[in-house]
Design brief:
The chain contains twelve helices and no strands. With 267 residues, it is an all-alpha fold.
């Protein structure tokens, strides 16, 4: 049975759900443009599960899960950057080790806390209808930081994305920018958990950028299309979830996949 999705927008929780979903789509797709071109798509899945381990640790300690999830993802980003740039370890190897370890930690912490219920599932599958004013403020700040970072370091990001050697030869601090981008990805993933969940957050990191890659004619066009597809995926997806009374993370992912299919057919 279909519902009128716009009826939800007459309530505060519906408006907050829409805003949190849209902000998530914008920020995830923005950093996703970097993730996809750097061939780091596994980072989305890996860091999402690292964040889930942080959530489980927060539930176990009885503190705010978002804070512990942020600590875990920032620490993981630091380790990835250190082992990749300082020790020459391949990204996939480091991320794979962290992925497996974080899943194990999540299971252990949830088992010890006895919390397999809604508190953990909200972060696993996403629950934008439970978004608070604090969640929206954090997402808004994260979105502002991400787009301001791209605004001020556009050329550096562009060069690093396609050739770190050229970026270094041009005098840019590649290691610093790479490190800051890793931290931004960690921030985005952590604060996006409530909207789309750990299992689906990487879809917004990968599919909008993958769709834009099929259609874009240049880097700026690619970035703009990626953000547009991220916005459309989250905006339409949340309305579809209202209409079908379905999980929002799943509908956002399905809409994103449909956009990907259309882009592949139009290419």
């Amino acid at each position: 049975m279909l519902h009128n999705p716009f009826l939800y927008l007459s309530y505060g929780f519906g408006v907050k759900a829409l805003i949190s979903a849209v902000l998530t789509g914008l920020t995830c797709s923005a950093v996703g443009s970097y993730v996809v071109l750097r061939k780091m798509s596994f980072a989305g899945a890996g860091l999402a599960h690292v964040a889930l381990a942080g959530v489980a640790f927060g539930i176990f300690l009885g503190v705010n899960p978002t804070l512990t999830a942020l600590f875990f993802t920032l620490l993981a980003s630091l380790l990835i950057w250190f082992f990749q740039l300082r020790r020459g370890l391949h990204f996939d190897a480091t991320m794979g080790a962290l992925f497996a370890t974080s899943v194990a930690l999540a299971v252990v912490f949830l088992s010890l806390s006895g919390a397999y219920g809604s508190s953990a599932l909200a972060y696993l599958f996403g629950s934008p209808l439970s978004a608070t004013n604090t969640d929206i403020i954090l997402l808004g700040i994260t979105a502002a930081v991400v787009f301001l970072f791209y605004l001020f370091f556009w050329r550096e990001i562009y060069l690093i994305t396609f050739s770190q050697e050229i970026a270094k030869a041009s005098g840019y601090k590649v290691e610093v920018i790479t490190f800051l981008m890793s931290l931004l990805i960690a921030l985005v993933i952590t604060f996006s958990l409530k909207a789309v969940g750990a299992l689906l957050v990487f879809s917004l990191l990968v599919m909008p950028a993958a769709s834009a890659f099929r259609l874009a004619k240049g880097y700026f066009n690619f970035f703009a299309l990626t953000v547009l597809f991220g916005f459309l995926s989250s905006f339409i997806g949340i309305l579809v979830s209202f209409a079908l009374d379905a999980p929002s993370g799943a509908t956002i992912t399905l809409v994103s996949f449909l956009i990907f299919l259309l882009a592949a057919l139009l290419d």
